[in-house]
Amino acid sequence: MKKAWWKESVVYQIYPRSFKDSNGDGIGDLNGITGKLDYLKELGIDVIWLSPVYQSPNDDNGYDISDYRAIMEEFGTMEDYDRMLSEAHQRGIKIVMDLVVNHTSDEHHWFVESRKSKDNPYRDYYIWREGKNGKEPNNWGSCFSGPAWQYDETTEMYYLHLFSKKQPDLNWDNPKVRQEVFDMMNWWLDKGVDGFRMDVISLISKDPSFPDGVPGINGYASFNEPANGPHVHEYLQEMRRKVLDGRETLTVGECSGVTLEEAKKYARSDGRELNMVFQFEHMDVDADGANKWSDKKMDLRDLKEVLSRWQKGLQDVAWNSLFWENHDQPRSVSRFGEDGEYRELSAKMLATCLHMMQGTPYIYQGEELGMTNVPFRDIEDFRDLDSINAYHELVGQGVFTEAEMMKYLRYKSRDNARTPFQWNAERNAGFTEGTPWIMVNPNYREINAEEQMAREDSVFHYYQKLIRLRKEQEIIVYGTYDLLLPDDRELYVYTRALGAEKLLVACNFYGGTRTLPLPEGWCAQKMEVMIGNYEDAAAAEEICLRPYEAVVFRMRGEER
Ligand code: GLC
Ligand code: CA
């Protein structure tokens, strides 16, 4: 397999608004990040993916950009940015920017112009359509409730917005739009940034016939309807030629609605498009059909089926990105682990299960502490437009009661991941000296970085060890993957193999004790523990897995 630095790296995602506030206004900022680079160095990560820091009216916390070459005032200045970049580089940490180019803000000057008249030079930068019988051009829904089309009085036409109506979709079929994006990317790369995480990049090419889709629980078709459209690969190949070729970058596409077959094209190992993609199938194992608003618990067999299909499917032909969390998902320990008595054990178990797979691991801020979901009291506690809109729409339509919807929001809302990073046990978890823009999780006195850095057996130190092992053991990066016991409802067991070496990764996803007979070809005398979340794990003819136990064994075989 071809080696590459981005295959050997661990990426850490920062959501700047919630990471560290340096000036007491209650909002995280760039100087806050700069001040915490040593913390990240200590953790051992190689790359930071920075959620958007560009100028934005913040309808969707920076995912609605009004100027791609300016820094959001709340986050600081371009000088602050340059200092952060150079301080990161001095520590050997790379910075990957969030590239949000499926849409802009409606306050971007391109859109301000575009909506003025049908013959404005920027008209074609966006997607305008006539209504159909006095209604929207088709039944597509916005990701954030309601229709994906907004009627605009001035020219009496509709524009497309797969996200909020303050996020109009760019028209990628217009070569001028593509050139604008490529110029902007080159501008950032010339500044020294190390790559891009590309926001919903699978949605940029729309079928010009705009066909209706299957309606969901609110009556609209999914915002994912246009995923993997007719020209998406062509446009990404053009981006490769005009921007990325000849540069050392990490590129990862956020590909909602991506299938394995499509991913093989996006992340093809001949390097003509992206290095890797984020797929979301494993984020759907606890959805209720196509509806994410539920508190259904996953069936572990589904999780294993999905992740193993991606592990095997991309082997040798593309590359996986590995994640449990990001700023759009609830906390993994509350979702796939257990956030009470077994919080630390299950957080370490989940980390083991993910970091031992083939692919580039992503850690979302706070995941390395086992930060949990948040006991939001009522709808007033939420800040995320997705959560707030869904609440009003679904309760309003009578699909769910208020109590049901609050239960689902507490379980699935994106705001679970967006409360302030818990630095220490002081006021506001040490995040700000002012009033935080969103509530702090009340468990910060117990769960915080300071406490965990001082304690050898903490989740933080466990992550640190996993990251270090990846640097030392090639097999973790490049070994092949094979699933064992696909039908077991409680244990996730898989092997990795590289040359004469093998790993056995055994994870107990539940609170009972289980035994695992040694699989064929494994010999207890030759096995040693590489890492585990209980101190005294040992190889035996029958491996005993205690509640939420994770253990990785290494065995050298005969040289072939
Ligand atoms: C992506 C982002 C999400 C954002 C949306 C619109 O899914 O991760 O946070 O709301 O795109 O940009
Ligand atoms: Ca601030």
Summarize the structure.
This protein is α/β, with parallel strands linked by helices. Helices cover 26% and strands 16% of the residues.
Description:
The protein is α/β, with parallel strands linked by helices and 560 residues long. Helices cover 26% and strands 16% of the residues. It has 15 helices and 20 strands. The chain has helices spanning 30-35, 37-43, 78-90, 109-114, 175-191, 232-244, 260-266, 300-314, 332-335, 343-355, 385-396, 402-412, 449-453, 459-472, 474-478, and strands at residues 11-14, 47-50, 54-55, 67-71, 94-99, 128-129, 149-152, 157-160, 195-198, 250-254, 276-278, 321-322, 360-364, 480-484, 491-498, 501-508, 514-517, 527-532, 542-545, 550-556. The strands form 5 sheets. Strands 11-10-9-5-2-1-13-12 form an 8-stranded parallel sheet, with helices on one face. It has a 5-stranded antiparallel sheet with strand order 14-15-16-20-18. A hairpin with a 4-residue loop joins strand 7 and strand 8 (157-160). Helix 5 (175-191) runs parallel beside helix 6, helix 10 (343-355) packs parallel to helix 14 and helix 11 (385-396) packs antiparallel against helix 12. The longest helix has 17 residues, at 175-191. It is globular and about 75 Å long. The protein starts with 10 loop residues before the first strand and ends with a strand. Bound molecules: alpha-D-glucopyranose and calcium ion.
